[in-house]
Amino acid sequence: MEVQENLKGINKAIIQACNRANRDPKDIKIIAVTKYVSVERAAEALEAGIVNLGENRDEGLNAKWEVLKNKPTWHFIGSLQSRKVKNMIDKVDCIHSLDRISLAKEIDKRADKNIDCLVQVNVSGEESKQGLEPEAVIDFVQAMKAFPNIRVIGLMTMAPYTQDENMLRSCFKRLKAIQEEVNELKLPFAPCTELSMGMSNDFQIAIEEGATMVRIGTALVGNELQGG
Ligand SMILES: *Cc1c(COP(=O)(O)O)cnc(C)c1O
Predict the structure, then answer these.
(1) Which mutation among 14, 201, 215, 218 tests ligand 1's pocket best, with the greatest number of atoms within 8 A of CB?
(2) Which residues form ligand 1's pocket by a CB distance below 6 Å?
(3) Would you state the pLDDT for residue 143?
(4) For residue 196, what pLDDT is reported?
(5) 186, 222 Cβ separation under 8 angstroms
(6) Which end of the chain is more exposed for a tag (fewer CB within 10 A), N or C?
(7) Which residues belong to the signal peptide in this entry (predicted)?
(8) All domains of the chain, ordered by start, with CATH?
């Protein structure tokens, strides 16, 4: 597993997707999802030029943080239990899974600085997926006014695991449309410029539909802890 080789291929694919969509590749941030790999592999990603690491559990974040400290920008991408917030809030730069008021309250209470958050939306409506219903997003974002430590910098979604390109596209388009609705409100605490969407199997399509953050695990760093 050569992270550097993988990154080359991914960068190429990002450029191609940007060309198709008339976008600037500089506007795309790669979040290397290291939840299934060792700290050594995560360090290899940083050496290859990755800046952003994503973890989905407080244990995984803490274990890697012990070694890598503030070298990367840390993203939390998994469902987050309120009682876990205090274990990770001082190590994380960006939380992609804000999806309920009680969690916002806890983040606001425990943070001693502004935390960049993305509101997770369950666009596909799959029961197994976290996130707000699309119809609930506007009210939810407006309610963030009560929490001075929370800055809503964008929206996040997980598309269904499918090869059906039309289904993926419509999911990403819907998130983009909700983002535009949020931005029409011009809320000072919700500069909603980011769209976190796209993973190993669908990041090119997500970029064509407006993604600014792609969360890539398997295709970039592999999944060695899962036997891959
Ligand atoms: C695991 C995970 C990813 C990365 O998935 P890959 O298919 O390995 O790229 C992205 N986003 C979230 C929320 C994840 O949990």
Answers:
(1) 215
(2) 33, 35, 56, 77-78, 158, 199-200, 215-219
(3) 98
(4) 98
(5) no
(6) C
(7) none
(8) 2-221 (3.20.20.10)
